[in-house]
Write a structure and sequence with these properties.
Layout: H1 3-22, E1 71-72, E2 80-81, H2 84-112, H3 134-137, E3 138-140, E4 147-149, H4 150-158, H5 175-187, H6 191-203, H7 212-224, H8 228-240, H9 248-259, H10 264-276, H11 280-292, H12 296-307, H13 313-329, H14 333-340
Antiparallel strand pairs: 1-2, 3-4
């Protein structure tokens, strides 16, 4: 059980190493901090304060008869319009404030969501979050697509159970059996299985031909079905140009979607992307979230930023304490027994 996981872990570590090198805390890759243009238009509708219930262009208000129905600007929600014509006329005047507020709303979402790890990061047996990196501290079961922590797997083996500790399915005997199990779940449109099969194509495991483009196709399908891991994998593909053309903007978009759903490594990578652009305040905000989820590398990056004068002592202390609290939360008797009996 978990033989394929070991091979994947080794190659994934090399792949992640390339990414970590690119996302170094001091920003070794060339980047350009996006400039925020100051608002110069004095009109009330151009501020980031919502205006009264009137059309921002012509001044019409909603009437009791419902003939005039005002609709919000969908980008910033600061102003309202009585129709598409007024919105187009007013666009040039409203554009700067609209873009500013839209960016603020996007940031509010990005930094306020994803502080809790997703369900798939928890062992289905002991229900505790799995330590990071999960490939090192858990086994991915071929039969049910569940990730079981090594503590629970160790406890099951001590009781003489050598089948899947979650669903009790006998372990596959060879790569062909493993692939059959995975494909059975893929046929049922299991997003975890589809994303997992994508990794097997990427690394050329289970006797499959190494096919990076096929991997990206599978990750795309899995992402559409709700796989957070697939979003993260697609982000790496775009960042490093694996099976697709290098597009760091798209990479950030996919990582943002994953991070807002609790993907810790995606959050960490967003911090690296901001750091390489010299947006250190934004980088630290990301790193703090991933550090508090138990990702040690994020603590290390905040430490580097602190030593370079780009993060405060308080931020480093907050990251360290948050990380230590997360580690304590992930401890269990069975996991400690597994660690001792290595």
């Amino acid at each position: 059980m978990g033989n394929g996981e070991k091979a994947e872990g080794r190659t994934h570590k090399r792949r992640q190493g390339s990414l970590n090198a690119a996302c170094a805390a001091r920003g070794r890759l060339q980047g350009r901090e996006e400039e925020r243009r100051e608002r110069t238009t004095p009109a009330a509708s151009m501020s980031c304060i919502s205006v009264d219930d009137t059309c921002a262009n012509c001044g019409k208000g909603s009437d009791a008869a419902g003939i005039v129905v005002l609709k919000n600007c969908m980008a910033c929600r600061l102003v309202k319009y009585c129709g598409i014509k007024c919105q187009r006329v007013h666009r040039k005047q409203h554009k700067k404030a609209c873009e500013q507020r839209a960016a603020e709303l996007k940031d509010e979402q990005l930094y306020s969501q994803g502080h809790e790890r997703p369900v798939g990061d928890f062992c289905p047996i002991c229900t505790l979050p799995i330590p990071l990196p999960m490939a090192k501290h858990s086994l991915f079961e071929w039969c049910c697509m569940k990730r079981v922590c090594r503590g629970c797997d160790f406890a099951a083996q001590k009781r003489g159970m050598h089948d899947c500790p979650f669903c009790r399915t006998p372990c596959p005997r060879n790569d062909a059996d493993k692939l059959t199990m995975v494909r059975a779940r893929v046929k049922k449109k299991d997003p975890a299985a589809i994303s997992f099969l994508g990794k097997k194509y990427f690394f050329g495991d289970l006797g499959l031909h190494n096919d990076i483009q096929k991997a990206v196709e599978l990750w795309t399908e899995a992402a559409e079905l709700g796989s957070i891991d697939a979003l993260f994998q697609i982000g790496i593909a775009y960042y490093l140009g694996e099976g697709v053309k290098v597009d760091k903007k798209k990479a950030v978009q996919f990582w943002s979607k994953a991070a807002m759903q609790g993907c810790v490594q995606a959050r960490h990578n967003l911090g690296g992307d901001e750091a390489e652009k010299r947006n250190y305040d934004r980088a630290v905000r990301h790193y703090l979230i991933s550090a508090k989820a138990g990702f040690q590398e994020s603590v290390g990056n905040i430490k580097q930023l602190f030593m370079a004068g780009d993060a405060t002592k308080e931020q480093y202390a907050e990251a360290l304490k948050g990380y230590q609290d997360a580690v304590e939360e992930m401890k269990s008797h069975n996991r400690e027994m597994k660690r001792v009996h290595k």
